[in-house]
Amino acid sequence: MGKFDKYKIDLRGMQVDFCKYDFLLDNTFFANIDGPEIQKGKVDVELSVKRSSHVFELTFNTEGLVWIPCDRCLDDMEQPVTTSDKLMVKFGYEYAEEGDNLIIIPEDEGEINVAWFLYEFVALSIPMKHVHAPGKCNKAVTSKLNKHLRTTPDDENEEGDFDSGDDNTIEDDNERIDPRWNDLKEILDNN
Question: Which residues have a Cβ under 8 Å from the Cβ of 147 and sit 6 or more positions away?
Fold first, then answer.
């Protein structure tokens, strides 16, 4: 028995027009799927399968927590995930993905393994930027990062977070220009 056999849905053998499946995506699932974004989590998925003529509508309702690295300090952080996704499946001669949510599976097989789709739906629900709440990042990493980002001791703001910029920065930069650049500007002006 394969590690993702319990995620196979037998569409050809469906005796009724509506079925429900419940899955728990835990640390073992995320480790086995070996996806790059998520390594740990605890996510409940309710899958509803509705048959109408030769098309199957799969509705995935997902809710839970995943642990992903913080973009700022790289420590693991909890990220809640909640998503609802649909996938349309119909029978054909060979496997194909058409459009955003239409899958064609071989009629002689008659089943679809939804493990990778479950992972993708969870991964796509994670925001692009994921950082700890203010003050929750690893203090040692944040202080080193701030130290390397500062050009003067005054660049760090009161919260120990990154300097967001200042309107006087442009004026200060103009005052600190190396005088040799002025000589090069004169050469350009003469041409």
Answer: none
Mean pLDDT over all residues of the chain?
82
Q: What pLDDT sits at residue 75?
A: 85
Angstrom distance (rounded) from CA 93 to CA 108: 8
- For the chain, the structural domain boundaries read 5-124, 139-190
Query: 1 and 25 in contact (C-beta within 8 Å)?
Result: no
Chain segment 78-125, per-residue pLDDT in tens: 999 999 999 999 988 888 888 778 999 988 888 899 999 999 999 999
User: In 171-180, which positions are buried (b, 16+ CB within 10 angstroms) versus exposed (e)?
Assistant: eeeeeeeeee
| Residue type, position 147, single letter | K
